[in-house]
């Protein structure tokens, strides 16, 4: 397959008018990519006024409504992907903005036929001052690249749907994202990790991390709070147990074991001994890490002992 960027379509999911300034920036950042995408689809999650506004502001893009009866970003992304016949589909969240060269860097690894999907680096951008207690190792809680990820390009188990590209044939072979396994209501399930595991298994391919494909993702002030962080960790614990149920049990959580047994203990030891080196401020993120692990453990325990399950295997159809 040719790896020209013109072989790529882009899907930008969105859902609410309050995203409008960020959504405009997101769409503009996609349209500014050179070489350009073959087609840009903006998928709107059950919000016709927003869809009309997008059509009026961006006549050069195609809008589509979420074709599923319920709200949810998984179905919204699937609805946008349905319209594309390009060999590769790229995804960019509607509140994220791509840096120059994002699309070219995100699609270059497809020159290797063993690559079934690629993910880029996501930088959290704090709308206010970043709290001093935020640990680098837990930036995933805000959708960002975190300490412990590879710093150079290479194979990984999974990437994030906020900045992702997939080989269309493999994506369709697994039915796309599970439409009721994701961020819906009060649950936050790792629908992107689930997709990566299924695509690797069915296509026999690998996922590739491309840190030069950079996007910026805003973090609002209401998410720069400890209670948000702990809630996010709690949901992560629940979500990973639900993920294991759907994907061959504990073997699907190998990356999490490596993180909990390697990345986190090293960071905690480094932070706990930092005052001996004159850096007492490092105790704040260290304490937050321990609290985050505890919250994730509570979430996992709740899910293991009868928490609400999400086990659907429904797929989207063309």
CATH 2nd-level architecture of the domain at 5-222: Alpha-Beta Complex
Structural category: alpha/beta
The CATH class of the domain at 5-222 is identified as Alpha Beta
* Structure annotation, total helices: 9
Radius of gyration: 19 Å
Main beta-sheet annotation: 9 strands, mixed
Please identify which CATH superfamily of the domain at 5-222 we are dealing with.
Spore Coat Polysaccharide Biosynthesis Protein SpsA, Chain A
At the fold tier of CATH, the topology name of the domain at 5-222 is: Spore Coat Polysaccharide Biosynthesis Protein SpsA, Chain A
Average pLDDT level:
92
Fraction of helical residues: 25-40%
* Strand and helix order: EHEHEHEEHEEEHEEHEHHH
Distance between the termini: 22 Å
Describe the global form: globular
Q: Give the oligomeric state of the chains in this entry, treating copies of one chain as homo and distinct chains as hetero.
A: single chain
Give the low-confidence spans. 309-318
Organism: Actinocatenispora thailandica
Domain Glycosyltransferase 2-like: 10-174
Pfam families: Glycos_transf_2 (PF00535)
GO molecular function: glycosyltransferase activity
């Amino acid at each position: 397959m040719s790896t020209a960027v013109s072989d790529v379509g882009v899907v930008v999911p969105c859902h609410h008018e309050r995203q409008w300034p960020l959504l405009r920036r997101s769409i503009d950042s996609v349209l500014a990519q050179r070489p350009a995408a073959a087609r840009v689809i903006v998928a709107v999650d059950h919000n016709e006024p927003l869809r009309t506004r997008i059509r009026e502001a961006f006549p050069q893009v195609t809008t589509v409504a979420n074709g599923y009866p319920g709200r949810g970003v998984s179905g919204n992304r699937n609805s946008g992907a349905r319209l594309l016949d390009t060999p590769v589909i790229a995804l960019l969240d509607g509140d994220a903005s791509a840096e120059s060269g994002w699309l070219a860097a995100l699609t270059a690894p497809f020159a290797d036929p063993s690559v079934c999907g690629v993910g880029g680096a996501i930088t959290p951008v704090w709308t206010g001052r970043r709290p001093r207690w935020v640990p680098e190792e837990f930036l995933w809680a805000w959708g960002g690249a975190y300490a412990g990820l590879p710093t150079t390009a290479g194979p990984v188990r999974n990437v994030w749907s906020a900045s992702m590209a997939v080989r269309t044939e493999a994506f369709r072979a697994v039915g796309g994202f599970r439409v009721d396994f994701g961020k819906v209501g009060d649950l936050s399930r790792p629908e992107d990790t689930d997709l990566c595991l299924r695509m690797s298994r069915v296509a026999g391919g690998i996922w590739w991390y491309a840190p030069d494909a950079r996007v910026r993702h805003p973090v609002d002030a209401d998410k720069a709070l400890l209670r948000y962080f702990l809630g996010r960790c709690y949901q992560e614990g629940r979500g990973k147990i639900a993920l294991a149920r759907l994907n061959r049990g504990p073997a699907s959580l190998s990356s999490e074991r490596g993180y909990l047994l390697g990345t986190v203990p090293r960071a905690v030891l480094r932070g706990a001994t930092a005052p001996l080196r004159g850096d007492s401020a490092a105790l704040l993120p260290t304490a937050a890490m321990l609290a985050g692990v505890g919250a994730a453990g509570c979430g996992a325990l709740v899910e293991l002992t009868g928490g609400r399950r999400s086990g659907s295997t429904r797929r989207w159809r063309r």
